[in-house]
Design goal:
This is BatD family protein. By secondary structure, this protein is α+β, with helices and mostly antiparallel strands. The chain contains nine helices and 30 strands.
Length: about 600
């Protein structure tokens, strides 16, 4: 009997081990996990089921199961979590569905699939038991369920089918039901707006307004506005904005005075990916001088004066004003007479960005200095643009301007007829043919001997001079090669310059920029302070720099840069902030060099 029990225990243990191993193979291939989690495995027909599909690496082509015998009442909502701990990145992405059963019985939630790094991963199917209706289904709702039902982030796109380089406005609104209240929020993942030229419109004040969402009364707050100018035609994706929202959710409990007790929780909400179809600009009727201007514009060419003296200067301004992609095209250039000295233009812009797009003016100011007296015409030039309202190309021509130089030297030119008048005719003398002189008066060439010459002695003693130079060079290279610490410092200096230059190239790409910036700072410290990677900590850096008598403001600047690199992995950073951090890094390294 003992032997039988022992065999049964061994077989059960073997089956459990095989099952655990199979599940590990299904969910953790190549370090990638993709799992399905259910809020409960048994529920009443009048209750809700929450299904989470979670992965530790971002993927594409997510396909949920069919959810047979269930009705999807919410979802998919998407949440992303990213953090950086001890130099290792932690990533989690979850698709959430809220389901309501449509019948009683034992049902299976089938596999979901996703593609990660070219491989397809599947979740393990799970069974759910649906029983008769329960007495108090609302009591089974969790705080997270209530927050999911009453919190929605929506991206409103002004145009779904714009022209190339036509303004598209995206407004992100957070809809909140009166049943809950929002205390704070934190951006998790800002869209990168690939294939768009983007301009954020700052939201200075978050004012709650009344509205409706899916036919129900809600309050909403505008969190973010951005104007996009598509830079290519076809279907373009606008990446989702993800936020972590901190909310107060009411419970069924009440305090001593009868007031409802609230529970605080945090929820990750996403606006979802939006796709727009960008129309190319028509080829029919496109002017030859079209430079990509899209909008409604005015065009003018003006000069500061039309009469002046030689060697005085005047200003000629080529200006485009109106509404459109003012920063994304080139201004036409005037055709000026070659006798006028023209300097490179100074570019000026006065542009404001509103929800409807850019408005203002851009101009090129040319400084012109005439050298001679006379009249100089500035011919008319044209500016062409595409107007998306009329869906036609329009061309504006400037007026011709005449410049009169009153006083100064007169330009002189050589008359072609005068040149020919100075020529004299060749008169034949009758002695057109002569005999060749047969007495050339040749002299013998002096032959110089190589031996004993200056070149001979230079070549003779040159090797003797090169020997000590070669010995000195060899010893110098040997000393450099034996200087291990010095070589490490030089290598770290090169790496610091390399990563700072890499960070400059990655401006606009948040994650890659701050990774390169942090590596550059790291290698700079290795070069200057002789510390290894394992010793890289803010406290130690502060102590070492203090011992080196570095001023506190420079130490604080360096530490703040490291903090920015850490914060950038889970917080939104604009292009302006990245540019400021890059300039600050260059300034801090320069100041530390002076101090050290």
């Amino acid at each position: 009997m003992k032997v039988l029990k022992s065999n049964i225990s061994f077989i059960l243990g073997l089956f459990l081990l095989i099952g655990w191993h199979t599940r590990a193979q299904e969910e953790t291939q190549d370090g990638v996990t993709f799992t399905m989690n259910l809020s409960k495995e048994e529920l009443g027909i009048n209750e809700r089921l929450r299904v989470d599909f979670t992965m530790n690496k971002d993927g594409d082509n997510f396909k949920p199961p069919q959810f047979e015998n269930f009705k999807v009442v919410m979802g998919p909502s998407q949440s992303i979590s990213s953090s950086w701990i001890n130099g290792k990145r932690s990533f989690s992405k979850t698709y959430t569905y809220i389901l309501v059963p449509t019948a009683r019985g034992s049902f299976t939630i089938n596999q979901a699939t996703i593609e990660i790094d070219g491989k397809t991963y599947k979740t393990t199917p799970k069974k759910v038991e649906v029983t008769a209706a329960v007495d108090k289904p609302n009591a089974q709702k969790t705080v997270d369920d209530v927050a999911d039902e009453n919190l929605h982030l929506v991206a409103e796109v002004s145009k779904g089918n714009p022209y190339l380089n036509e303004a598209v406005t995206v407004i992100y609104k957070l809809y909140v039901s009166p049943n809950i209240s929002v205390t704070n929020y934190r951006p998790l993942d800002n869209p990168t707006y690939n294939n768009f030229w983007s301009q954020d419109i700052p939201v200075t004040k978050h004012t709650a307004q009344n509205g409706t969402y899916q036919g129900k009364p809600y309050r909403y707050v505008v969190l973010k506005r951005v104007v996009l100018y598509p830079q290519k035609s076809g279907k373009l994706d606008i990446e989702p904005l993800s936020l972590e929202i901190f909310v107060d959710v009411p419970t069924n409990q009440r305090d001593f005075f009868g007031g409802r007790i609230y529970t605080q929780t945090s929820k990750t909400v996403s606006a979802g990916k939006r796709t727009i179809t960008v129309k190319p600009l028509p080829e029919a009727g496109k002017p030859a001088n079209f430079s990509g201007a899209v909008g409604d514009f005015d065009f003018s060419v003006t000069t500061s004066k039309t009469q002046l003296n030689a060697s005085e200067s005047l200003q000629a301004k080529v200006e485009v004003s109106g509404k459109g992609n003012l920063k994304l095209f080139q201004l036409p250039e005037p055709e000026l007479p070659s006798s006028l000295e023209v300097y490179d233009p100074e570019y000026e812009e006065a542009i404001n960005t509103y929800s409807s797009g850019m408005e203002g003016k851009v101009s090129n100011n040319y400084t012109i200095v005439p050298s001679f007296r006379g009249k100089y015409p500035i011919p008319s030039i044209s500016f062409s643009f595409f107007n998306p309202d009329t869906e036609k190309y329009e061309t504006i021509n400037s007026e011709e301007i005449n410049i009169e130089v009153m006083e100064g030297p007169t330009s002189t030119s050589v008359d072609a007829s005068g040149v020919s008048a100075n020529k004299q005719a060749v008169v034949p003398t009758g002695e057109q043919f002569h005999f060749i002189n047969i007495n050339p008066n040749l002299e013998p060439i002096e032959v110089k001997c190589f031996f004993g010459s200056k070149l001979f002695f230079i070549l003779l003693f040159a090797p003797l001079l090169l020997i000590p130079i070669a010995i000195f060079t060899f010893k110098k290279r040997e000393a450099i090669a034996s200087d291990v610490v010095g070589n490490k410092i030089k290598k770290a200096n090169k790496l610091a310059k390399k990563y700072l230059s890499t960070a400059k190239k990655e401006l606009g790409n948040k994650e890659a920029f701050y990774v390169a910036l942090e590596k550059g700072l790291h290698n700079y410290l290795k070069a200057k302070l002789h510390i290894e990677t394992t010793e890289f900590s803010k406290d130690k850096i502060t102590n070492i720099l203090s011992e080196k008598h570095v001023q506190k403001e420079y130490i604080d600047g360096f530490i703040s840069l490291l903090t920015s690199c850490e914060m950038a992995r889970y917080s939104p950073f604009s292009n302006v902030q990245m540019q400021q951090d890059y300039e600050k890094a260059s300034e801090v390294i320069s100041n530390l060099d002076k101090q050290l």
